[in-house]
Amino acid sequence: MTTTTDQSSTRRTAAVEALGILGSGPEERFDRITRMTQQAFGVPLSFLNLVHHDVVTAQSTQGWQQGGNAPAGEVFCSVTVMHDGPVAVTDATLDPRFRDMAAVREQGIRFYAGAPLAMPDGTQVGTLCIMDAVPRTLTAEELELLTDLARWAERELGQAMDRDRVRKVLVGMTPDPVDVPGHDLRVVSSARADSGDVADWRMAEDGTLRLTVGSVSAVGRAAALLAATIRAAVVARTDADLGSDGPALETQIGDDLDASAAVGSLFHARVDPATGRLVYVDAGHGLALHVRADGSSTVLQTLDLPIGLQRGVGRTHVELTLAPGDRFVLFTRGVLALQGLGDVAAVAALAVGAGADFADRVQALLPTAPDADVTVAVLTRHATSAG
User: Fold this and answer.
1) What is the pLDDT along the chain (387 residues), one digit of tens a residue?
2) Where are the beta strands (DSSP E) in the chain?
């Protein structure tokens, strides 16, 4: 049995705390695992333990007190958490690592087997283990079963971390309102906690508005986390030149998208409030409109390939001018689920017909598709703006 170098206690503790579940009380998703583990091996005791601050917390147990803590030096799992595979002890009274522990001397534990629990980055945060008062020997198949059950526990812990990350991410997802000279900017959103919608708007140091909308399609909470990653990359490039930021951004997030088997799109525009000059790049989004004061409209898109966000891709920069009274409308696919807005042409028709009330009309339609993630940004140049 090979022991790996122990990860930093600080790193492990940070990972456990990031799970946000210590002291949360019994949870069926963990109790189901320890219950099945106890039944599968026919043992009186099973534990899902977390190791932090040199303390071991019984997050879920069968046959023992839930939520109890013990010094790591007094618990088998403090050894298991430093291994890259399962640890099995046939008779703890004969093992110099464990024979002096109180659990062995005072509580009569003889048999122990545990598998480490690791987070996606490899940080081992705890164990899934079983104990008995009589010596036992596990077969290779039984050790494999314990390892499989530990992988199940890891997935549940990973989802707990995802939920906590999503909650923290969402706190900072909505930018502050901005004042765009000579323009009105309205944003409507019904994006949920697991939404893959991307939206950001902010004024750059050169006085231009940077307006970005996009989306990520991925399994589960990965969409929200990837959307947050993309938005963070966009924000970091607020003051970068348009010619250099796109390829760098797509290269930065390409690996994350590939690893999650996710697909992302992005529409990024920069507007000079003084002149109405708007320059945009479209990475496969295609959901944008130029609605003119005379009632005509144009769908804004490019034919750049490949479609969607990709590593190291150059994009065509397209330029137009928002004349006084013109509007720039940028939205996500959830808008097409709203009643009467089944395609881009229908959205354009509403944008033309509703005029300045377009954002309010979209807001009123949100209840018609309660499960849709909707994001709409509308930038209107004042009719009195000078050219």
Assistant:
1) 333 334 457 667 777 776 767 766 677 888 999 999 999 999 999 999 988 878 888 889 998 877 677 887 788 988 888 888 899 999 999 999 999 898 899 889 999 999 999 876 677 888 999 999 999 999 999 999 999 999 988 888 876 665 555 454 444 456 778 999 999 999 998 877 678 888 999 999 999 999 999 998 876 667 777 787 787 778 777 777 655 555 667 776 776 777 677 888 999 999 999 999 999 989 889 999 999 999 999 999 777 776 788 776 678 889 999 999 999 999 999 999 999 999 999 999 999 999 999 999 999 999 999 989 999 999 999 997 544
2) 45-52, 55-62, 69-71, 87-89, 111-118, 124-132, 183-189, 197-203, 209-217, 263-271, 277-283, 288-291, 297-299, 318-321, 327-331, 375-381
DSSP letters spanning 175-206: PPP---TTEEEEEEE---TT--EEEEEEE-TT
Q: What are the beta bridge partners of residue 50?
A: 57, 126
What is the 8-class DSSP label of residue 70? E
Taking alpha carbons only, the member of 349, 335, 300, 287 closest to residue 188 is: 335
CA dihedral 253, 259, 262, 268 (to 10 degrees): 0
Longest alpha-carbon distance in the chain: 89
The amino acid that residue 385 corresponds to is: S
Q: Write the CA distances from 356 to 211, 230, 299, 352, 375, integer angstroms.
A: 19, 30, 18, 9, 17
CA separation for the pair 29, 157 (Å, rounded): 10
Q: Which residue has the tokens 């765009």?
A: 180
**Total Cβ atoms within 10 A of residue 360:** 12
| pTM exceeding the 0.70 threshold for the entire prediction | no
CA separation for the pair 362, 189 (Å, rounded) = 9
What ranges in 89-186 are assigned the alpha helix state H?
102-105, 140-171
Q: What is the CA radius of gyration of the chain?
A: 28
At residue 240, the 3 state secondary structure works out as coil
Q: Which residues of 44-63 are buried (b: 16+ CB within 10 A; e: fewer)?
A: ebbbbbbbbeebbbbbbbbe
- Starting at the edge strand found earlier in the chain, the sheet holding 69-71 runs 69-71, 55-62, 45-52, 124-132, 111-118, 87-89
| Rounded-to-integer distance, Cα 191 and Cα 198, Å | 9
Rounded to 10 degrees, the C-alpha dihedral 90/91/97/99 comes to 160
